[in-house]
Amino acid sequence: MCSDFVTAGALGGIRGSLRRVASDLEQQNRTVSSLAQQVQVANHWQNKAFNLQKTLAEWQAWGRKMKVGWEQEEQVSADLRQQLEETQNRLAQAQEALRVEKDRGWEELNELNEKYNKLVRDFNKLAQCANTVKAQPANAVALITALEAELNAQQA
């Protein structure tokens, strides 16, 4: 009987050891499972970080491209503003030249009108003298001499 107790005790010890081994294995399995889950989570976040870095690089490239385009647009705008200013200056100069030419044209027209009016007055005097000579043929020489003196005085 003693051997039965010894056997039972040994079996109990083996059973206890087996339970401890099974418990340790179960704990290791949980640890391995937990580690596998953590590795899976780490891989997920690593992929997420890689994708975000890729997206960031794309946005940075897009931003540089847009900045270059914006700088080119600024240069084009500056060139257009300069061209507009130059064109406005040329337009102002042309308008001033036109105004000066127009004023000069009016001055010439006024001078020509004055000459025309003087010619008309002179012609009217000649016509009056001719009419007077027709009316008074005896005084023709005196009238013509007076008319010549008056014309010579005006020309001097």
Outline:
This protein is mainly alpha-helical and 156 residues long.
Helix content: over 70%
Determine the oligomeric state from the structure: single chain
Please compute the radius of gyration using only Cα atoms: 61 Å
| Beta-strand percent range | under 5%
Q: Which regions contain 5 or more consecutive residues with pLDDT less than 50?
A: none
Structure summary, number of beta strands: 0
Shape: rod-shaped
Summed over residues and divided by their number, the pLDDT gives a mean of 88
C-alpha termini separation:
176 Å
Helical segment count: 2
Major sheet: none
Summary tags:
156 residues
Give the helix/strand layout.
Elements: H1 2-135, H2 140-155
Helix pairs in contact: 1-2
Textual characterization of the structure:
The termini are far apart. The protein is 96% helix and 0% strand. α1 runs antiparallel to α2. The chain has two helices and no strands. The longest helix is centred in the middle third of the chain and has 134 residues. By secondary structure, it is mainly α. The mean pLDDT is 88.
